[in-house]
């Protein structure tokens, strides 16, 4: 579809966007009324919201609209999974200038649709408003399927700390793009379209995870939240992190330390969880440390000095 948002108008835009995304199997009443109706068989709904702002979370010369849609959905769906829940529906707030090509908004929705399809979720509704920068605000809902939520506060001394998913790939991709390069592609693609291990969230809950979160800002920073909420210390072992040879090569080429990407890089949306010692973990989980009495996060016995991850106002 050619033209701009200004050409299409608010209701034309809503029509064009909503016909692009299915509401999915959990939404008996989708876009078109004052509110949507989302099924909650368990009676308890997980709800979470995250914003993406142009220039801060993405650049249009680094990512396509489709990539931004995939990433916007992924970062919200990962928060649902990190509670041990199954995502059911998204609500999308879209702000953009009148000059924005309609094609950009439609491709954004194609990305949202395809990421939702990974977890069988849909788009239940949203809002569109004119504004100077592009901003995407997403609320994700999920179903606990009768289980208690896996919070950040349940880690106990003696637990093991384990990770499912990627660490450091998005940060390596961001570093590559920031240096004006586009290769190696694998890292750039990981930055544009993270692949959170969604199924590991509910699976961790079933395995008896005591605490869990997704790594959005950086492992050290995010585990700091978990340690604080649980009143424990998290001790990581550097040797348990396996850094791919290709990531070491990129680090060498850019003069960066790949372990820094792995430990403090955000946006891969890996899941990190604590489990009672002896829990029979499946192959998707890699043990990277343990929980002890105390506070804070250590790497090889040392308190991490420097930034542990992204801080929007830091
Ligand atoms: N403006 C706000 N008003 C109310 N609660 C907020 C606000 N901002 C954050 N929170 C709450 O603070 C907690 C931590 O938020 P945070 O955004 O750090 O988590 P996250 O989404 O897992 O991380 P990230 O934003 O890096 O993906 C969440 O429970 C969130 O709902
Ligand atoms: C253009 C551009 N510059 C920098 C970054 C890096 N970045 C932005 S937000 C964030 C942490 C998660 O954010 P939030 O806490 O809001 O979920 C990171 C690592 C990027 N993605 N794009
Ligand atoms: Mg958030
Ligand atoms: Mg999170
Ligand atoms: Mg988040």
UniProtKB/TrEMBL annotation:
Q: Which GO MF term does the entry hold, naming one?
A: ATP binding
The residues the record assigns to binding Mg(2+) 2 are 50, 79
- The residues that the entry says bind Mg(2+) 4 are 34, 48, 79
Task: Check the record and name the InterPro entries matching this protein.
Answer: PurM-like_C_dom (IPR010918), PurM-like_C_sf (IPR036676), PurM-like_N (IPR016188), PurM-like_N_sf (IPR036921), ThiL-like (IPR006283)
Query: Which positions carry the signal peptide feature in this UniProt record?
Result: none
Cited Pfam families: AIRS, AIRS_C
Residues binding Mg(2+) 5 are 217
Question: Start and end of every PurM-like C-terminal domain?
Answer: 156-244
Q: Which UniProt keywords apply?
A: ATP-binding, Kinase, Magnesium, Metal-binding, Nucleotide-binding, Thiamine biosynthesis, Transferase
Residues involved in Mg(2+) 1 binding: 49-50, 127
The residues that the entry says bind substrate are 57, 267, 310
Which transformation does this protein catalyse, written as a reaction?
thiamine phosphate + ATP = thiamine diphosphate + ADP
**E.C. no:** 2.7.4.16
Domain of life (superkingdom): Bacteria
Tell me the route in metabolism or biology where this protein functions: Cofactor biosynthesis; thiamine diphosphate biosynthesis; thiamine diphosphate from thiamine phosphate: step 1/1
Q: Which residues form the PurM-like N-terminal domain?
A: 32-142
Record-listed Mg(2+) 3 binding positions = 34, 79, 214
Q: Which positions does UniProt annotate for ATP binding?
A: 109, 126-127, 152, 216
GO biological process terms, alphabetically, are: thiamine biosynthetic process; thiamine diphosphate biosynthetic process
What family name appears in the similarity comment? Belongs to the thiamine-monophosphate kinase family.
UniProt xrefs under NCBIfam families: PRK05731.1-4, thiL
Q: Which PANTHER family match?
A: THIAMINE-MONOPHOSPHATE KINASE
What does the UniProt record say this protein does?
A: Catalyzes the ATP-dependent phosphorylation of thiamine-monophosphate (TMP) to form thiamine-pyrophosphate (TPP), the active form of vitamin B1.
Further details from the record: Reaction mechanism of ThiL seems to utilize a direct, inline transfer of the gamma-phosphate of ATP to TMP rather than a phosphorylated enzyme intermediate.
Q: What is this protein called?
A: Thiamine-monophosphate kinase
Organism of derivation: Yinghuangia soli
Source species taxonomy: Bacteria, Bacillati, Actinomycetota, Actinomycetes, Kitasatosporales
| Gene it is expressed from | thiL
